């Protein structure tokens, strides 16, 4: 008897080799992601440990935005496809647009209320100027009349005191009092 003939095996397929540029881009992307995560961690520790609203606002905006931009940059260097890169560019752009606006609003509201420790401020530029551009939620606008007291509601009657009418509890077109209370399929 003859020895069995082994099946001819194809040579192993090696993965496509990465060029030196791709390896360098991956390394730079990884470093950017790690730095971004560390900056975001510093921002979260600052939010928990700083004493007042303005200090926390500083920690929430500056290192957090830079950290997110570094993560976005690292992700773009790793992914390198146009759809992914443009999506990450939009994420970074929205963060750059919304973070300063949010910080400004939070700072103004904190200064208006009792959220600012005045002993920690070196200069308080808003102390001598009252904020007249936007009254608080409890103060009416200057050109707006005082709100009137609402009329007491009467159950089952309209403003003229009469009963009935469509939707007022009286008989509807079917005479069963369900006008205006039917679902999508017409069932009560």
UniProtKB/TrEMBL annotation:
InterPro entries for the chain: PhaG_MnhG_YufB
One Pfam family in the UniProt entry: PhaG_MnhG_YufB
Region (Disordered): 120-188
Keywords tagged on the record: Membrane, Transmembrane, Transmembrane helix
Record bears the keyword Zinc: no
Feature: compositional bias, Acidic residues: 136-151
UniProt record similarity statement: Belongs to the CPA3 antiporters (TC 2.A.63) subunit G family.
The protein's name in its UniProt record: Multisubunit sodium/proton antiporter MrpG subunit
Organism (species): Actinomycetospora straminea
